[in-house]
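Holo prediction — beta-D-galactopyranose.
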Amino acid sequence: MKTLSKLMAVSALVSASAVGAAELEVTHWWTSGGEAAAVAELAKAFNATEHDWVDGAIAGSGGVARPIIISRIIGGEPMGATQLNHGRQAEEMIEAGLLLDITDVAEANGWADIINPPKLLDACTVDGRIYCAPVNIHSAQWIWLSHEAFAKAGVPVPANWDEFTASADALRAADVVPLAMGQQAWQTELAFGALAVALLDQTTWSAVNIDKDAAVAAGAEYTRVFKAFDDARKLAVGSNVNDWNQATNLVITGQAGGQIHGDWAQGEFQVAGQVAGEDYTCLPGLGFTEVLDTGGDAFYFPVQDDADVEAAQKELAALLVSPEVQVAFNLKKGSLPIRGDIDLSSANDCMQKGLKILAAGNVLPGGNISFTQDTLNQMGDLMTAFWNDHSITVADVQAKYASIIENAD
Ligand code: GAL
């Protein structure tokens, strides 16, 4: 990987000689095995043009990378392109004029007719102008189950969350931690969100997650979700890992029964050579409600004031949405493509399940679309406090959650 100073020296050279080719430093937080394999597909495609991809991977997940990325852009040290989650994370930078308007690319490539579901493009749009290229749909409502772990415990692989909790004693007796969970706040928050989608009907879910109705958040339906979350924290005792992919690795190696996690976990199973349906099982909606959220990733292009760089940025934007890149990238990433007109017949069992749910239109907006990052951080902190401190009761956590919803913008 080239250093930033080298990059700056090279881009100065490129613009001085006006050769048209540019180096773009591209920041992202895709550093696990599966993620790195996926982002390498993007780099390969961009390097096949006259331009160069300078990889700016930032370790530590979105919670670490996002503030670094944003402060560089705001602080006048913009990269050529950056991953963010599509939704509200870039709102303020767009308003400040720091991100490139790529409406011309979107129009020239017919994105309005191609991108599916259309709300992915809406998430890139501010005042009718488009500022990002969505690259995938990631959903969080999955549990990933280790066949090896359940074989050790001598019980069948569960078909839903209730069967999973019922198998916990057998797993413990076989020295298997029932639920793998990393320590970062967003991971516990993700598990809470997945339980909410799995256990609630859509009207109740939407009342809180779209309409921000605090009374419903404080009500009996949500108490059920918090009770399940209480079960989950007990099932995860003994899962002493930090990063999400370390938690996935506990499942891959049969040390844990399952992990509630996003579909990017698929990339890890794939890199480990595991086969969906043989070595592991994935249950969307935790085996209950086959609904997925349509969160995911998009690339933004900080304004650089350099015509060559801008041309390269626009070329990259178009490339990311192209059919070839969509197939190559998403097959490795474990995510679903953002266009419905491409052939994904080689996708594994789990991706096929996701594609079916998407085709049936059983989708919800992702949390990054409904809530600001500030609200999400507050929720993450609350869920982590509850997760780690078993003296906090279900009633306490639910009351605090309802007050976050009440104040959410
Ligand atoms: C999410 C991102 C995914 C995946 C995950 C874990 O924010 O959308 O692509 O990378 O973080 O790193």
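READOUT: Residues 1-18 have pLDDT under 50 and may be disordered.
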